[in-house]
């Protein structure tokens, strides 16, 4: 299994108090199958698969009062160094780096505006095994009310270089890592998104048909926050699962 380059989003997982519900909803929505971690300490953490390849995970929340949330993981060669850089750049270390059995080393951080993200230093588990195909992660985007602060922070932490482009109602920023744009940033969006959301990282999954997937999500008890619409990259919609976790889907041309 090939790894993901450092500085690149490599994994996404869902923390939810309704793990059983998530294990019903997402396989019905995306055609995923599940593989439960054998360790009792993992709390039933489940790796979701497409055609036998890992695409995402789901597990119990870190604390009982944690709201259901999809998390973005960025690959790193050194999770402890990433933690040092987060603090030096004005962010918070929410969970200090620790080993996840023999799979990898991770830490959970927040940027100065409060957007939570994780890092993954791979060991046996390198990250997702499939990207950009239906049912797999295809994009990660920061929604932040402080884009200038975010530009300084993520450049210090990951070496990302921001590239601004005009968009309807504001500016879209691409995060360049080496030769590639690996993620994006937008200002807080209206048009269906909750107005009280703090800064957050959104996880996007590729689908074959955005309209059909959004309709199916609603049938399964989810919520359509932003109905399918055409954007430059494809046809996109923002959804919530039945427990309230926000995620996006996109069907690309």
TrEMBL record:
**Matching Pfam families, A to Z?**
Glyoxalase (PF00903)
Which InterPro entries is this protein grouped with? Anthracycline_SecMetBiosynth, Glyas_Bleomycin-R_OHBP_Dase, Glyas_Fos-R_dOase_dom, VOC_core
Please report the stretch or stretches of sequence annotated as the VOC domain.
Answer: 8-122, 136-252
Do you know which PANTHER family this protein is assigned to?
A: GB|AAF24581.1, GLYOXALASE-RELATED
From the Swiss-Prot or TrEMBL record, give the protein name: VOC domain-containing protein
Q: What is the source species?
A: Micromonospora mirobrigensis
């Amino acid at each position: 299994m090939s790894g993901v380059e450092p500085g690149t989003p490599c994994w996404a997982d869902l923390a939810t108090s309704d793990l059983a519900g998530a294990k019903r909803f997402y396989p019905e929505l995306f055609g995923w199958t599940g593989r439960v971690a054998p360790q009792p300490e993992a709390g039933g953490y489940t790796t979701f698969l497409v055609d036998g390849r890992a695409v995402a995970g789901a597990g119990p929340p870190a604390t009982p009062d944690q709201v259901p949330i999809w998390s973005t993981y960025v690959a790193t060669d050194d999770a402890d160094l990433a933690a040092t850089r987060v603090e030096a750049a004005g962010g918070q270390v929410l969970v200090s780096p620790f080993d996840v059995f023999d799979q990898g080393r991770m830490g959970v951080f927040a940027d100065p505006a409060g957007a939570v993200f994780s890092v993954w230093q791979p060991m046996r588990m390198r990250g997702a095994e499939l990207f950009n195909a239906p049912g797999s992660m295809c994009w990660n985007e920061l929604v932040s009310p402080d884009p200038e602060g975010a530009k300084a922070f993520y450049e210090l932490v990951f070496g990302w270089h921001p590239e601004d482009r005009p968009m309807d109602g504001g500016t879209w920023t691409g995060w360049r890592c080496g030769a590639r744009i690996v993620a994006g940033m937008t200002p807080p969006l209206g048009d269906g998104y909750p107005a009280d959301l703090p800064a957050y990282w959104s996880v996007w999954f590729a689908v074959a048909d955005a309209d059909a997937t959004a309709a199916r999500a609603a049938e399964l008890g989810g919520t359509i926050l932003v109905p399918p619409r055409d954007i430059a990259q494809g046809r996109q919609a923002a959804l919530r699962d039945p427990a309230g976790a926000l995620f996006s889907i996109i069907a690309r041309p």
